[in-house]
Amino acid sequence: MMAQTLVMPGQVLSEDVLPVPHKSSMPLRLGPGLRHTPPSTITTSLAGPLCIDRKKNAIWVENNSGRYIPQTNDVIIATVHHSSTDWYHCSITPYTTFAQLPQLAFEGATKKTRPQLTAGGLIYARVVTASKHLDPEIACYNPSTGKSEGLGELKGGMVFDISLGMARRLLLNKQREEGKLVILEDIAEQVAFEIAVGRNGKVWISTNGVKETLLVGKALQTVDEEVLNVDEQKKLAKKLLRQV
Q: Is the pLDDT at 65 greater than 70, yes or no?
């Protein structure tokens, strides 16, 4: 379970609201909307619910209306804008600086085997470094294992916009229990699809046909915009599946 309290920008968090880890060696993970000032001051930079995941010893401020702010380890969907000698320059959100993707930051990539991405191409990547003073750097593999772990170029499919809160819910390990989401589970009983969710409010969906892809995307956006509960999601899934 995740506890929530409302916070305002510039608020200093007291120690009693911070999660207590199950293991003393587990570091506190700060997410969007929080700023750490050494040695131990944590200040909010956004207004919204303060979300605490005690199992992961993580804390962040949920904010659906503001623009996405890159955070280290976030998975995102980015669009290739242009390339230079050693880098791909990618757009994460409109009207912000480009994220930098090394051309060899793919599983097993060499100068001969690296993907040849073109402008407009989509990638599923992880934020490696994020700072307000530097452009974010992203990668399409896990530096610790050298494996892609599902990251890389996204071919075909369509991208849909969702709120930042919806993106977080879709990325939860237990969507039904923790995120109160059943729409994808119900649709998957009749429609096969692939999905990639970006913490930057983007979701990529690929199916066997355009009609099915639009159905899944519309379902997610409707649940998001209308804030549907579990029962309402089930009714929506049945309604949409009649069109297949």
A: no
pLDDT, one tens digit per residue, over 104-163 is 999 999 999 999 999 999 999 999 998 878 899 999 999 888 899 999 999 999 999 999
Amino acid at 104: L
- Please report the pLDDT score of residue 66 as a whole number: 66
Q: Identify whether the C-beta of residue 160 lies closer than 8 Å to the C-beta of residue 122.
A: no
Indicate the burial class of 66 (C-beta count within 10 angstroms; 0-12, 13-18, 19 or more).
middle
pLDDT tens, position by position, 70-112: 988 899 999 999 999 999 999 999 888 999 999 999 999 999 9
Partners of 65 in beta bridges = none
Point out which residues pair with 43 in neighbouring strands: 12, 35
What integer best gives the mean pLDDT of the chain?
A: 90
Q: Outline where the chain has alpha helix (H).
A: 164-170, 175-179, 183-187, 210-226, 230-241
Structure tokens at 64: 């659906």
191 in Cβ contact with 240 (< 8 Å) = no
Q: Are 60 and 32 in contact (CB under 8 A)?
A: yes
Q: What are φ and ψ of residue 136, in 5° steps?
A: -65, 150
Residue 114's CB is within 10 A of a number of other CB atoms, namely 15
Determine the Cα–Cα distance for residues 159 and 68; give it in Å rounded to an integer. 16
Own/partner contacts of 169-174, CB < 8 Å, gap of 24 or more, are 170/197, 170/203, 170/220, 171/75, 171/197, 171/199
DSSP string, 27-63: PPEE-TTEEEETTTEEEE-S-EEEEEETTTTEEEE--
